[in-house]
Amino acid sequence: MSKAAELANLIGNINAGSPLANKNLVQNGAMLVNQRGSSAITLSGLTPHIDRFTAYKANDGTQTVQQSTDGPEGFKNSLLVTNTGADSPVAAANRVAILHRMEGQDVAHLEFGTSSAKTITLSFWVKSSITGTHGGSFGNGANNRAYPFTYTISSSDTWEHKTITAAGDTTGTWATDNTTGLQVAWGLGVGTTNSGTAGSWESADRNSATGATTGFLTTANATWYLTGVQLEIGQNETPFEHEPFGRTYEKCERYYQKSYIHTEKPGGSSNAGTGTYLGSSYVQSIYNTTYNQQLYYMQPFRTKMRAAPTINSYNVYLGTEDGLMHYASGTNHGASFSYQSENSFRFYGSSLSSTGNNNGGDGYAFHWVADAEL
C-alpha cells in the first residue's frame, strides 16, 4: 500500500470515529507478552495462553499452543498452534478456535446492538501448512450473535496478510461493562454445528464459516501462526499500531498478574522476581506457647485488575502449587487467600512454626498468580 493510500485510509477511519492513537481494540496483537511461559501448552477446554488470547478445544485430537519467534517483517513473535494428534473425521460439534475477547467497556463506543453500530475492520498476519479457505467470526459475550467470515491461505508455510471488514450488528445484546463485549475467533477446524454463512450476522454461536477447511484438525503436525492482529473502527485497514512493550504489558496485567519475572512460567522452582516474603513485621496474630502463629498479609496489585481474580500460590523454591516456603527449614506449608478485589488480596497462613521465638522473624515466602481473564 502506498503512503498516500495509507493516509487516505487513516483519514477515512478517523472520520468514522477511530482515533489517531489507541485505535487498535486488540491487546497484545503482536504476541509480545507471554506471562504463562514459552513452552507449549496442551489445549483442554478453554485454555488461556499468550496474554489476552485463549483457545477453545472440543475435539478428539490433541493440539498445543505457544509463543513463536517466527514472524513476518516488523514482528518478532507470533502465536503458534500445532495439531499434535489428528481428529478425523471432524464431528458436527467438534472444533478448535483461537479467541480474543474484549472488555465491554472498551468496545461500547462501537454501539453494537443499536442503529448506530460502527463498521469494523480486522487485519492480521497468518501462516499455515494448510492452504485453502479458512474461517473465523466476530461474536458477542453471550455467544448468541455471530458474524462468520472467511479468508484464503494461498501458499503453505508463507506469511500472508488478511483483512476482514464487517458492518456493525444493529441487533442483539452487547455487554458494555467489564465482561466480554466483543470476541474475535479464528476457527482451526470447526464442525457444522458452530459454522455459519459468511458475511452476515445471525443469532447463533459460530467460530467459523460454512465451507471453511477442517484440514488443520485432520492433518497430524499441521501448523498455524498468527500475529499483527488489529481491530479498528472504519471500513479501511491502517498500519499496525506498535506500542511500547511496557504499555502492552500493563494492559495485560489487568487480566493476569504474577510475582514471577516476565520470562518465568508460574510453578518454576526459582525465587527470582518479586516473590512475597513474610517476615516478623507481617505477623498480625500470634497464639499459644509452641510458637505456632497466624500470618495475615495484604498484597496490592501493580495494575487494577478487571475483576476480583482467582489467586494461586507457589513455593518459591520447590514450585509446589498452593505452597508456602518456610525459609529456616525449607518445608512446604499450605496457604489460603481471601478478600480478593481488583486492587489486592489477603494472604492467610495458620499454625506456622517459628524457630524459638514467636515473632516469625525467620520468615515465609511464596510466589503468586492472579487471574481475571475473560
Kindly describe this structure:
This protein folds into two domains: about 5-255, Galactose-binding domain-like (Jelly Rolls, Sandwich), CATH 2.60.120.260; about 275-370. It contains four helices and 24 strands. The protein has helices at about 5-15, 105, 215-220, 245-255; strands at about 40, 45-50, 55-60, 60-70, 80-85, 95-105, 120-130, 130-140, 145-155, 160-165, 180-190, 195, 210, 225-235, 255-260, 275-280, 285, 290-300, 310-315, 325, 330-335, 335-340, 345-355, 365-370. The strands form five sheets. The chain has a six-stranded antiparallel beta sheet with strand order 1-4-5-14-7-10. The protein is globular.
**N-to-C CA distance:** 35 Å
Q: What do the pLDDT scores average to?
A: 88
CATH fold-level assignment of the largest domain = Jelly Rolls
Quote the beta fraction.
35-45%
| Continuous helix count | 4
Shape descriptor reads globular
> Spans with pLDDT under 50 lasting ≥5 residues?
280-291, 355-361
**Which homologous superfamily in CATH is the superfamily of the largest domain?**
Galactose-binding domain-like
Number of strands: 24
Quickly give the structural class: mainly beta
Number of domains: 2
Strand order, main sheet: write it out.
1-4-5-14-7-10
CATH architecture of the largest domain: Sandwich
